[in-house]
Specification:
This protein is α/β, with parallel strands linked by helices and 138 residues long. Helices cover 47% and strands 20% of the residues. It has a four-stranded mixed sheet with strand order 1-2-4-3. The chain is globular. The chain starts with a strand and ends with a helix.
Length: 138
């Protein structure tokens, strides 16, 4: 059974059920079972801080991913890694693409899953509809 750990600052209303449904559907489609990942929805300051620490980039971006390269644990669980989504950036995407916030977070979540699992060929739809400045943070 797959597992999703979700954290979010209280001022960022997210649909946890929708996030889990998206992750479970994605993992099912690629045939990955007994996997665990965490998703954090944060503000611009936090993602900027993470960018500065891990990417030497002093600005906010839409999504960050941190892959874990560990074997399955003794219970057979594969911990994939972490996806960090910037809520204010998701709000901008929602406005630009005329999406609901759930749809914008979902879009960024799939982008993060693609990055985390190296599934870039399925990411072309996201990339073609999102300005490069929003993806790269530049």
């Amino acid at each position: 059974m797959n597992s999703v750990l979700i954290s979010s600052e209280s001022r960022y209303p997210i649909n946890r059920k929708k996030i889990k449904e998206t992750v479970f559907s994605y993992l099912e489609k690629i045939g990955l079972e007994d996997a665990e990942l965490s998703i954090a929805v944060v503000g611009s300051r936090k993602i900027k801080e993470l960018n500065r620490k891990w990417r030497n980039l002093n600005e906010p971006t839409t999504v960050l991913t941190f892959a874990l390269e560990e074997p399955r644990d003794e219970k057979g669980v594969l911990r994939i890694g972490d996806i960090v989504i910037c809520y204010p950036q998701a709000r901008l995407i929602a406005q630009e693409d005329n999406l609901s916030m759930d749809e914008a977070v979902d879009k960024l979540l799939v982008h993060g899953l693609n990055n985390l699992l190296g599934n870039y060929r399925n990411d072309s739809n996201f990339l073609s509809q999102t300005p490069a400045a929003d993806i790269s943070g530049t």
